[in-house]
Amino acid sequence: MHADQNRLYADVKFLTSLQPARHYRNLASLNQAADYIKAEFEKLEGVVQEQPFRADGRQYRNIILSVGSASAPRIVVGAHYDVFDETPGADDNASAVAGLLETARLLHAVGSNLKYRVDLVAYPNEEPPYFASEFMGSAVHAKSLHEAGVPVRAMLCYEMIGYFRDEPNSQRFPNEQLAARYPSTGNFITVVGRTGQEDFTRQVQELMQAKADIDVQRINLPAEMGLAGLSDHRNYWTYGYEAVMINDTAFLRNPNYHQRSDTIETLDFRRMAEVVNGVYAAILGL
After folding, report:
1. What is the b/e burial string over 157-189, where b = at least 16 CB atoms within 10 angstroms of the residue's CB?
2. d(Cα 82, Cα 64) in Å, to the nearest integer?
3. What is the pLDDT along the chain (286 residues), one digit of tens a residue?
4. Which CA distances in Å does 225 have to 168, 194, 216, 234?
């Protein structure tokens, strides 16, 4: 089973075409995105649920597809479907939602043979003003798992998986120490974890690299550094769950980050498909 570039493109095309932009204030567009994700999930085997919650008087919803045995330990695969301000959000974060949907389609073929129950979750409210608050969709979901006493094997967060460059020095770094350790060409994907979960981060990276035709790097950073926790996986750390971000390094590579120029034409769907192939392999191999 391999990820389909055409399906990834179709998903990104739909999400980036929504007007006005799918952010926390534009509930009609945000709900159109949620409805699309739900409809795609409902084409597959598994249980589809909504997890509604309120923030500042507005209602939002996580969209969840669960596959595999209900009694098995859980792997969570997540991506946020909202965007920053009035941006198309092709890389941030339609690429990740497309990856989530394609992962669901690949898992559809495995069905009841899964070792774990896999919850594929699409979240709103990752972007400001709700970032790092209890109103992130992922914060709501992680808290619900903890309160229900659910055993969680891992959480894998898709966050910006579509922007790659082959030009020399197309990859930037926040400091010289990191620049000395990693490639200077921005054509790799990174498994990002926090300090203390090096073994888990390595396991995910090695499982991905075995099946993905793309360079897969890994990094563990102190949570307090900020860069380690720049997406929905942060909320699973709160409850002691192993969680990593699958990321193209965002603003350290992509000049379109949080800009109106974050359009579908800037994405590399061949490499995006390889990222999904890697994550799919990691889910099966954990």
Report:
1. bbbbbbbbbeeeebbeeeeeeeeeebeebbbbb
2. 15
3. 899 999 999 999 999 999 999 999 999 999 999 999 999 999 998 999 999 999 999 999 999 999 998 899 999 999 999 999 999 999 999 999 999 999 999 999 776 689 999 999 999 999 999 999 999 999 999 999 999 999 999 999 999 999 999 999 999 999 999 999 999 999 999 999 999 999 999 999 999 999 999 999 999 999 877 889 999 999 999 999 999 999 999 999 999 999 999 999 999 999 999 999 999 999 999 9
4. 27, 9, 22, 13
The full set of domain ranges for the chain reads 5-161+221-245+255-273
Give the amino acid at 5.
Answer: Q
Q: Say how many C-beta atoms besides its own lie within 10 A of residue 25's C-beta.
A: 12
Output the pTM of the full model: 0.98
Sign of CA dihedral 263, 265, 268, 270: positive
Q: Which residue has the tokens 């900020």?
A: 226
Angle at which helix 5-17 crosses helix 27-42, to 10 degrees, equals: 160
Q: How far apart are CA 208 and CA 210, in angstroms?
A: 5
Closest C-alpha to 44, from 108, 102, 106: 108
The residues that bridge with 74 in the sheet, in sequence order, are 117, 152
Name the CATH topology of 5-161+221-245+255-273.
Aminopeptidase (3.40.630)
Gap between the Cα atoms of 18 and 21, Å rounded: 6
